[in-house]
Design goal:
159 residues, six-stranded mixed β-sheet, alpha+beta, 44% helix
Length: 159
């Protein structure tokens, strides 16, 4: 068989195989930093087209004021500012940022978006614009895992 025909058949087999094999979901992309947080933290992701966006600036200020409540709920802050990702203030790679945005199905140039992800890795809230941190804390406090955490850490009354 001529070499060119073998190469052509190899390419055809590769294409057919790639179409037949199911693709990995974006959430399972190993570059997605949310995978490492699953079961450990409740990620809060802020996506903004500009670092100067009024709702984004206000949101960051309010989260800083409520840092103790944020930490108490075992939250992790992600931000994507004009396509540049950060995890707790540290830069993420382009691949991590793209995997995060793809998994969350968010456009970094769209409206300012706030997303809360639970311990299980699923979206618990997604809203556009400014979101009061207390609203986020209330959502978390209604989660069964959070209620279990609160029961374990509540001071025991003496009998």
């Amino acid at each position: 068989m001529p070499r060119s025909l073998v190469v052509l058949l190899s390419w055809i087999c590769l294409i057919v195989w790639s179409l037949a094999v199911p693709t990995t979901f974006a959430a399972d992309n190993p570059a997605n930093p949310l995978i490492t947080d699953r079961g450990k933290f409740r990620p809060l992701i802020l996506v903004t087209p500009s670092i100067e966006h009024d709702a984004y600036v206000r949101m960051r200020e309010q989260l800083q004021r409520h840092r103790a409540e944020f930490d108490d709920r075992r939250m992790m802050l992600y931000s994507v500012e004009d396509g540049n990702g950060h995890r707790t203030g540290r830069p993420m790679t382009r691949f991590e940022t793209e995997a995060l945005l793809e998994a969350l199905e968010v456009d970094p140039q769209g409206p300012m978006t706030v997303i809360l992800v639970g311990y299980d890795g699923g979206k618990k809230m997604q809203l556009e614009g400014y979101v009061d941190p207390q609203q986020i804390f209330d959502i978390i406090d209604k989660m069964p895992m959070r209620q279990s955490e609160q029961r374990r850490t509540a001071p025991r009354e003496s009998r």
